[in-house]
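$ ./design --mode recover --in tokens.txt
reading tokens...
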């Protein structure tokens, strides 16, 4: 339970705390803005070969948090327009995943689970995040942009 609570606190409660702080500054400045949460493909399905129930639940919560805040903040006359979206990345090579991926079988399995045949790198998400933050996505809110190399397409 301690691990479960810690993961939910970091991923879901932490997202809410940061969004609320940002919204206060947006309202204070009286400007429209965009908030992007990092969800995960793990919010859409389960992970093979590793126990991630707490992580998956927390990232599913991030999706619903974004939809709820988009509805509350985007349609309220007491706030400037605040768009809220999520990005759901696929498996990423990071210091956090390196431990699990030290198992060659898991690295190969995760790489073969998407249409690109490899894992992603952190820098591959810069463009999608900039898109969600920019005016190029000015009619998007409560949306989830899945960038997973085709993982959820199968």
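writing sequence...
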């Amino acid at each position: 339970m301690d691990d479960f609570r810690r993961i939910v606190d970091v991923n879901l409660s932490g997202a809410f705390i940061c969004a609320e702080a940002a919204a206060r500054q947006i309202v204070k400045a009286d400007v429209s803005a965009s908030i992007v949460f990092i969800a995960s493909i793990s919010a859409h399905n389960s992970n093979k070969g590793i126990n991630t129930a707490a992580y998956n639940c927390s990232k599913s919560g991030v999706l619903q948090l974004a939809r709820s805040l988009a509805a509350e903040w985007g349609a309220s006359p007491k706030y400037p327009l605040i768009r809220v979206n999520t990005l759901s990345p696929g498996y990423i090579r990071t210091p956090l995943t390196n431990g699990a991926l030290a198992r060659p079988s898991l690295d190969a399995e995760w790489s073969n689970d998407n249409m690109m045949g490899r894992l992603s790198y952190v820098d591959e998400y810069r463009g999608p995040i900039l898109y969600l933050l920019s005016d190029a996505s000015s009619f998007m809110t409560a949306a989830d942009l899945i960038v997973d190399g085709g993982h959820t397409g199968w």
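exit 0
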